[in-house]
Amino acid sequence: MRKKPHGPAVPLIAVDRKGEKPLHRQIYDAFRAMILERRLHAGQQIPSSRALAAELGISRIPVLDAYAQLLAEGYIESRSGAGTFVTSSLSDQFLSARPAVASVVSDPPSDAISRVSRLLPLEGTPWFLGSGAFSVGQIAYDHFPFRVWSDLVTYHARRVRASSMNYSDPMGSEEFREVIAAYLRTARAVHCEPSQIMVVNGSQHALDLSARVLLDPDSPVWIEEPGYVFLRHVLTLSGCRLVPVPVDSEGLDVAAGVKLCRNARVAYVTPSHQYPLGATMSAARRLQLLEWAHSSGAWIVEDDYDSEYRYESMPVASMQGLDPGSRVIYIGTFSKTLFPSLRLGYMVIPPALVSRFLAVRQSNDLGPSHLYQAALADFISGGHFTRHVRKTRQLYAERRNALTAALRKEFASEIESSQMEILGAEAGMHLVVTLPPGLSDQKISARAGKEGLWLWPLSAAYAGANVRQGFILGFGGTKAEEMPQQVRRLRKAMRR
Amino acid sequence: MRKKPHGPAVPLIAVDRKGEKPLHRQIYDAFRAMILERRLHAGQQIPSSRALAAELGISRIPVLDAYAQLLAEGYIESRSGAGTFVTSSLSDQFLSARPAVASVVSDPPSDAISRVSRLLPLEGTPWFLGSGAFSVGQIAYDHFPFRVWSDLVTYHARRVRASSMNYSDPMGSEEFREVIAAYLRTARAVHCEPSQIMVVNGSQHALDLSARVLLDPDSPVWIEEPGYVFLRHVLTLSGCRLVPVPVDSEGLDVAAGVKLCRNARVAYVTPSHQYPLGATMSAARRLQLLEWAHSSGAWIVEDDYDSEYRYESMPVASMQGLDPGSRVIYIGTFSKTLFPSLRLGYMVIPPALVSRFLAVRQSNDLGPSHLYQAALADFISGGHFTRHVRKTRQLYAERRNALTAALRKEFASEIESSQMEILGAEAGMHLVVTLPPGLSDQKISARAGKEGLWLWPLSAAYAGANVRQGFILGFGGTKAEEMPQQVRRLRKAMRR
Predict the structure, then answer these.
(1) How far apart are CA A251 and CA A247, in angstroms?
(2) Between β-strands B220-225 and B241-248, what pairing exists: parallel, antiparallel or unpaired?
(3) I want to staple A65 with a disulfide (CB 3.0 to 4.6 A). Which of A24, A258, A267, B228 is the partner?
(4) Cα(A448)–Cα(A442) distance, rounded to whole angstroms?
């Protein structure tokens, strides 16, 4: 006959000896739930491990394990000589006040999140992240040298050493930065040393870091009007004051900027291929902008996002290379030349700012991951990058030609009568087509998105109210022979 | 006899027909330099392409190419009928004022960069990024299942499709988030759905995103004192007001926090294993903290950076799982369980905040890269992760035991007399040893770093002035049999 244990009443615990959960976990979970649900009160005594084991008819070991865990986490406390008790300091108020529902989805009160994050738009944009015809940022995936690339990734994945698994240089791997510096000097006429190169997670990351290093809340900042919507978002997060400066066929209108706000701290520009309208900033404007920056102590951020693709002439030299005084922060990306999910870009930082950027970057994410840096360094120094860019430049030129030809044919009378215009087709992987009066690009884009036609509305690229209606049409991901058909779909979408 | 060309004087250009640089580039570079250096003046006429080609004795084609480029970039302009001229609007002032030296390294004036970035320390910490004995954050690299891992990486590197090269979900891949959610529910008692998981570039990135979503400049924020130095940096960048709250053997002293600043907007805590002192936050304190957060509308950020490694009991359940009202943002990382250069972590976001975090993350870097997410999803769902954690838990327990034994032996009398203490060895991959009075941890650390002994000074973990001297000793990367010798080196470093 089993001896009835003395002591406190044993709570009802059902243990399942054949269950998946180990016994000690079952006991731990049961006690924790009883305490949290107030079936056991603060200060209440619980049975000794011996008594509970006897009651449950199990070995004492799982009970001891469960009690040890409950003790370690502070749900129970043992008082020497007296026994084991539910921790007396457990907050009864909170336990009784716990709502039954685990998660209530409602907008948080406005004072519970940051003001700047509240300014960012939350609505989905139907034309974003689509990968069909005309989606901006799409590349010729099927022409990518998969074999070479995956061989390099595989090689480095197999060649893992402790040093490549450890935290690495927050600026990026030295080898990769040397390769980037050599490429930029040759191909983009950028003045740089590897010590100025920072490897980042795409050009968006570089824009963000630059805003955090350079801008205070309320700092005035020149942005191109129209411009890149995600630049506006990242600047919104910094709390700075946006000064939209109009662009024309020579790029940013520097004189207009000076009139609007001479003392801006930074000018964000896309001189090689203005986004989205496509102008190349003229030499006169470049020198004027540099002059302004030098005389007023401002910085220039040059986002050179797609300069590798230029069809009528050689790639335009970088603006950074014209600047003798280190006022330019230069940004580039591999999202266009290789592929977007790589998430790799770089910036060239003026020597005086390198340590500031480094400190901010370490606070942000410590540094870039290893593998892709190693593979890409080899890809570039092995000549594959230049070869791929040369090959795709021709390919994108064909796609561009096919698109403009199809647009000129399909919209012949509108273009003839200047009701529609094709802009910025000399470079990059997108062009702009403007709309005849009376049409709303956002309405058409929303409709077209439902049918897999991705039309970035031009009007969304404007910060101010004085907008033009049109579409930013990506042509990188659409085959030349499909262009006529896709342009007919575009025409249909516009008609409804 | 060659016909002498009429027209403007031909500038002196030396072209090298056998040079590496193509002829058109040589001509372009020469003209650009002459214009920028004012050897050719704004408005000055330049020779016709025919004349220049004749003068140089080369074909006209490279000259035409170079002129086209100079025209495209706006250095020259053609006036119909009259010929070609250096662009008249080029800014003469700037050209003449250009300093000769390309880069002057000097600290930028204080009004030219953001106030918050100026607050970040720039000096190098000799104990950071070292990978020898006692370096914090080091793992047992040689016990990592290289083969399985690189097979998975290779598999996914070879299986590239357009969808895996394109911009992907800014929250992280759906498959990976499902795997993470399942793991967290089972192993960490986290309440979550995949829709709440955001894949980030390590836990530092998650801390940063949380600060940007939740904090305004001057928002009061509780941080643990002592605490994680890189958390302080990221909060400094947000401009918030730090409220250091003391920790004791039960973790953050909630009552002290309430007394210091009841209306803090966020509390940043490490409940599983307080960094650096190692306390596990007791159940009473957890409930008290949750109660405070609910009653005051504050958020709790739970940084669960190394909870997988616990030696005396099962891993402590997450605090997030105790919270019925979604006030907790939960952060985890693979830097400890796998390896740091992976740069992968995750956060579990309260449903009401998901869209805000998403908007901020898109502005920051658009989203995570593809390959490692795919490989790691397979690694976890294939059971390799759990197996690796189980194996390394035992390994780290041995290393921990060896370290504490060596410390107790080497510093027997100091520990006996309570002049030194060993703290927080129950979990994780580091412990703290405090120093006898009169010793400066930072001085010793600076000396020891030169000899490859990486001692994180405990005093640097304090935000306030009331600091304890000691070392945060990482033991993850040092073999058990080497511990006695390394502890002897530590003793030597302390003696000098």
Answers:
(1) 5
(2) parallel
(3) A24
(4) 10
Residue of A nearest to B280 (CA): A73
What separation in angstroms does the CA of B420 have from each of A58, B134, B401, B411?
A: 43, 18, 18, 8
pLDDT in tens, B368-390: 998 999 999 999 999 999 999 99
Sheet with B299-303: strands ordered across: B197-200, B345-348, B328-333, B299-303, B266-269, B220-225, B241-248, B251-252
> What residues of B are in contact with residue A141 (Cβ under 8 Å)?
161-162, 165-166
- Smallest Cβ–Cβ distance between B212 and the set A24, A117, A316 belongs to A117
Q: What is the 3-state secondary structure (H, E, C) of chain A?
A: CCCCCCCCCCCCCCCCCCCCCCHHHHHHHHHHHHHHCCCCCCCCEECCHHHHHHHHCCCHHHHHHHHHHHHHHCCEEEECCCEEEECCCCCHHHHHHCCCCCCCCCCCCHHHCCHHHHHCCCCCCCCCCCCCEECCCCCCHHHCCHHHHHHHHHHHHHCCCHHHHCCCCCCCCHHHHHHHHHHHHHHHCCCCCHHHEEEECCHHHHHHHHHHHHCCCCCEEEEEECCCHHHHHHHHHHCCEEEEEEEECCEECHHHHHHHCCCCCEEEECCCCCCCCCCCCCHHHHHHHHHHHHHHCCEEEEECCCCCCECCCCCCCCCHHHCCCCCEEEEEECCCCCCHHHCCEEEECCHHHHHHHHHHHHHHHCCCCCHHHHHHHHHHHCCHHHHHHHHHHHHHHHHHHHHHHHHHHHCHHHHHCCCCCEECCCECCEEEEECCCCCCHHHHHHHHHCCCECCEEHHHHCCCCCCCCEEEEECCCCCHHHHHHHHHHHHHHHHC
**326-355 in A: which are within 8 Å (CB) of B?**
326, 339-344, 350-353, 355
What's the pTM? 0.88
Give the number of other CB atoms < 10 A from CB of residue A312.
Answer: 12
Q: What is the ipTM of this complex?
A: 0.88
Distance from CA of A353 to the nearest CA of B (A): 7
- Integer angstrom CA distances of residue B283 from A27, A69, A88, A348, B317: 17, 11, 11, 50, 10
Best residue in A29, A167, A229, A236 for a mutation probing chain B (most B CBs within 10 Å):
A167
| Contact residues for A63 (Cβ-Cβ < 8 A; gap 6+) | A24, A27, A49, A52, A53, A56
Domains of chain A with CATH codes: 23-97 (1.10.10.10), 145-386 (3.40.640.10), 389-495 (3.90.1150.10)
Task: Report residue B356 as tokens.
Answer: 């805000």
Quick check: B165 and A341 CB within 8 A?
Answer: yes
Whole-number Cα distances in Å, A130 to A127, B166, B220, B315: 6, 10, 41, 42
Q: Cα separation of B110 and B415, whole Å? A: 48
The pLDDT tens digits for B303-357 are 999 888 988 777 788 999 988 778 999 999 999 899 888 899 999 999 999 999 9
pLDDT tens track for A240-277: 999 999 999 999 999 999 999 999 999 999 999 999 99
Q: Do A237 and B129 touch (CB under 8 A)?
A: no
| A213/B314 Cα distance (integer angstroms) | 43
